[in-house]
Amino acid sequence: MKRILRNIGWLLGSRGVNAAFSLVYLALATRVLGLEGFGRFALLIVLAQGIAGLASFNTWQAVVRWGAEDGRAATATGFALALDLASVAFGSVLALAAAWTAPYWLPLPAELRPLIFLLCMAHLLAIRSTPTGVLRLHDRYDLAMLAEAALPATRAAGAAIAAFAGLGIAGFVAAWAVAELACAAAHWLLARKFAPFRMSDISLKRLPAERERVWRFVFATGFSRSLAVTGKQVLMLLVGALGGAALAGGYRVAVQFGHALVQLGEASARALYPELVRVSHAAHGLAGRMTLLAFGAGLISVAAAVLAGRWAIAAIVGPEFVFAYTTLVLLALAGAVELLGSSWEALLVSKGRAELAFGLRAGPLALAMGLLPAAIGAWGLPGVGACVVLASSATVAGFGYAASRLPRVAELPCGTTR
Fold first, then answer.
1. Three-state DSSP class for 25?
2. pTM for the whole thing?
3. Residue 407: CB partners within 8 Å, gap ≥ 6?
4. 10 Å Cβ neighbour count for 172?
5. Band of pLDDT at residue 418, cut at 50, 70 and 90
6. Are 130 and 63 in contact (CB under 8 A)?
7. Is 352 left (phi over 0), alpha (psi -120 to 50) or beta?
8. Count of beta carbons in the 10 Å neighbourhood of residue 299
């Protein structure tokens, strides 16, 4: 538990730095580009993130799961890197298709197609799940935080240059792309000394030949991660397609502020998973304690959104975005619900039930997307927030029930099991 809290501290420190610099870029982008312009910029960003999320696998979990075994760290790392390279190849095809078709279904002009493609490729080349897994495997969350700091710092500096040079959307997109690549480079530079693998270790065949159910685990965790990440991006793209650039800009602002309030859940899940793998005999107890911590953090997040959300939006991004306040509160509520489920989801994955976790995310997300057009028509932007709350609540209820049904292993004082 002490190691988990220490690692959460490092992760939260990274998220805190990220949030502070993100507010700088957000303030510059919204005030320079305006409501419509920022909405278009947000759709570009989300489309690129969605492509990268759809094409990539959650390879850091494979590094932690099999890299912890004696003599298998290089094989696990090489397998994860091979998956990342395959993701770039597959994702480039998706990026080309997205860049060409985006103006037909999103409020984006056709002249932005080259920017869409270049930004998608930057996100794909900046996939850093494997070096992140290497650092977590060796409990170097401090180095991971240092590498992650390169992203918001570069992004904020680039946004300042774009704003004062009058470079418009292209300048902000360039700043975002350079920041992604700089962050990936920092991760690899810091992780390389902990991953002494050779080129011959980069293989999609070696680890599956040595361990059973590797592909089943990889696809289940990858799809679950894609749902968690890409699902949010798809919701935003649907908001833009159905409601226009201005509504998309307001939703992006609400998402940014709401995400900043629920960083503890993401940090706790990422810090908890390696411990659940290492000490499976104590997994239920660890997950239970983290759930109590998440409950308290969720209450604080919702209270902060209600009490300070309206003021923060007006002060940082401008009064024209205040219409996103109600949606911010709803997203903070959804994030608080997700906090409760983060430990249960990590427990399911650590116990080899990644496919179940994926299914518990897929169903509610599909329901939310199906209800989205009617919700926007009836309530506007708050309707989107209501759909997110519904999906998060259904997903976490499923996680809780499934985790409660997992078989428990009795703990002995010496730490062995019987």
1. helix
2. 0.80
3. none
4. 27
5. very low
6. yes
7. left
8. 12
Listed in sequence order, the DSSP H helices in 56-107 are 59-67, 73-105
Which ranges in 106-213 belong to alpha helices (H)?
A: 113-125, 129-137, 141-165, 168-191, 206-210
In a domain, 282, yes or no: yes
**Token pair in block for residue 214:** 């590797």
Q: Is residue 410 part of a domain?
A: no
Distances (CA, A) of 218 to 57, 62, 84, 186, 355: 7, 7, 12, 25, 10
For the chain, the residue count is 418
Whole domain around residue 327: which residue ranges? Answer: 2-404
The residue with tokens 């401090």 is 142
pLDDT at res. 411: 42
Question: Which two three-digit tokens encode residue 414?
Answer: 């010496």
The secondary structure element, H or E, covering residue 350 is helix 325-350
Count of the separate structural domains present in the chain: 1
Residue that has been written with the tokens 């988990």 in this structure = 4
176 assigned to some structural domain: yes
Answer yes or no: is 103 within a domain: yes
Sequence-separated contacts (24+) of 367-373 with Cβ below 8 Å? 367/391, 367/394, 368/235, 369/231, 369/234, 369/235, 369/238, 372/235, 372/238, 372/239, 372/242, 373/238, 373/242
Cβ–Cβ under 8 Å, residues 53 and 226: yes
CA dihedral 273, 22, 226, 82 (to 10 degrees): -80
Q: Which pair of tokens denotes residue 310?
A: 């309206």
Average pLDDT, the chain: 83
